[in-house]
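Sat 14:20. Reprocessing the chain from the morning session after the first attempt stalled halfway. Input below, unchanged.
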Amino acid sequence: MKRGAFTMRLKVVLTWKRVAGLAVIGIAGALLVGWSGLVSIAASSGHFAVTRWYLGWTMENAVETQSMLIVKPKDLNLDDPALVRRSAGHYATGCAACHGAPGVPQSPVVKEMTPAPPRLEEKVNEWSDEELFWMVKNGIKYSGMPAWPAQERDDEVWAQVAFLRALPEMTRTEYAELALGGGLADNDLEPGGETTAALDGIFENALADCVRCHGRDGLGRGEGDAEDAFPIIAGQPAPYLYATLRAFALGRRDSGFMEPPASRYPSEVLEELARYFADQPVPLERAGDAAVLGPEAEVPNLAVDPVDDAPVVDAGLASDAMETFLMPLDTPQDEAGVLEGAGDLAYAEIPLTASAGPPSTREDVLELGQRIAVEGFGQRKVPACQSCHSPAGRERNPLYPYLAGQPEWYLSKHLRLWKESRRGGTRFAHVMDEIARNLTEEQIEAVSAWYSSLAKAKP
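Finished this time. Tokens:
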């Protein structure tokens, strides 16, 4: 050692006991800091710059990594106008209140959140389609960003991604038409003002929620390529509509689009909505399968709703009589008397029997679809769809909807949900489980195409 110099060397040997001791001290220190109450949790204080950077960096890495396993469906077209329109109403009620929208500013209250939600028009292009899907479906902890209400409905999440992709180029007028039912583009919208319905249970507010997507006439909003964006609810039996709304409200049928608005209002308002849309005229060929109970017929009692705590409104169709009507899967269709004569389906102009072998043309697909709808496949325990969904079937049981003229994508999607045991609904929804499981993909596509092709009367 040189004179005047002093050197000290510390030799520390790490042992398991010392490592465990350090861990205990660290945990105790963290608990002590938390117990002291001195940690700032005030949103008004914000984050330190380094903290804000670290949290954002961590979130970006997590989304990028955890979205790597997501595979976008090959047949998905995010530019499809129908897909964009399908999720516009949900954006207005579920997203715009925080993120704003074209012509809709963010609330000053929202801007004071920590972290503050960004305006999505300015951010969506920074993320891939798969990353947007992951965030919409899973949400983000500690940010106020919720997960998708129906985790099994990836098709709805992709529709929301399609809307987000279109958002940056969307004008104020286009947004008002898509998401707010139109007619609001010239109004100054207050932050969150016209983006959410009032929560006071007033019928007009509830109807406004429905109109965003289904239109005031119940025929679905959209023209051209977006004409079939929504199912037709006009003229459906009132008990079916009411039971379906209650199923959405209680989580017995999954839909991220429908669960929030259905759970927003009391049963009495849902009942009134069901009666309103049941009374709307249906512009379909009334001589055939699309016929529904006319306005002169008495609307059946909504007390037949399958939900246990549904209100009983008045005397009407007895629920016990409905419970006895379950068409046996092996009942010969001609003995059941459900075909109702050739005249009912004559306007479709499609032979009753499908061509031999897998359908190779659109005509063959429609042939097969009509055969399934009218004759069924007894050997595969697939009864004719008309057994329940014909006018006579609905008269016997108003919890069965009509299918004619419904969008092809809607019919095929819900048949697949039943096939996968992921489709709930009214007390009779289970009837479709076994039927759908016995249908092949080719048959699902065929019967969906045929019902969708049934002629609509021009206005």
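The mean pLDDT is 80.
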